[in-house]
Design goal:
By secondary structure, the chain is of the alpha/beta class. The protein has a single domain, classed as Rossmann fold. The chain is 33% helix and 26% strand. The protein has five helices and eight strands; from the N terminus they run βαββββααβαββα. It has a five-stranded parallel sheet with strand order 2-1-6-7-8. A three-stranded antiparallel sheet has the order 3-4-5. It starts with a strand and ends in a 5-residue tail after the last helix.
Length: 183
């Protein structure tokens, strides 16, 4: 069970505990639009870059503007990868891996996470999320199975589906990664 930090780790931890599975992470960073960081135009993970070409064109983002955003996010990606290293050390070759996020809006981070994990040689990847737009599906070949508990027709943000949707801290992620099943 791999959670996408930070909020996805909270959801993944609950599922891992229930299924008595080990918990790890796949570190990903959203590439937010300049001036509107919450609007994803892509995402990065180790060895992976995903761009939403339609959004890049619609916003008329230059390669330079994207480069500035990506450079900043690569620094944060490296920081988090280092901080969560213990949760990212499992050998995934030949194993079934479930990747969990707290919700999918554009899908960029989920796709980047799945591609990064695919490079680590698992036998099968399942992408699971509590909520996503009803019409969203991962591109062909990115995952072997996709599970969304609430495919929402009126989706505008992940947070609208949570009673409380505060930012998860690094310390909370580290605490959850240090927990063992049923702890």
């Amino acid at each position: 069970m791999l959670g996408i930090p930070r909020g996805g780790v909270v959801v993944a931890a609950a599922v891992a505990d229930r299924l008595e599975l080990p918990l790890g992470v796949v570190v990903v960073r959203k590439l937010g639009a300049p001036g509107n960081e919450e609007y994803a135009v892509g995402a990065i993970a180790e060895g992976v870059r995903v761009l939403d070409e339609q959004s890049v064109r619609a916003l008329a983002l230059s390669a330079d503007a994207l480069g500035v955003v990506e450079a900043r996010e690569r620094e944060e990606l490296a920081r988090r990868a280092s901080r969560y290293a213990a949760g990212n050390a499992a050998d995934l070759r030949g194993r079934e891996v479930v990747i969990v996020d707290d919700g999918i809006a554009t899908g960029s981070t989920a796709i980047a996470a799945c591609r990064a994990v695919r490079a680590r040689g698992p036998a099968r990847i399942v992408l699971a999320t509590p909520v996503a737009p009803a019409d969203w599906r991962p591109p062909t070949g990115v995952v072997d199975a996709y599970l969304c508990l609430v495919p929402a027709p009126d989706f505008w943000a992940v947070g609208q589906f949570y009673e409380r949707f505060e930012q998860t801290s690094d310390a909370e992620v580290e605490r959850l990664l240090g927990a063992t099943p049923n702890e």
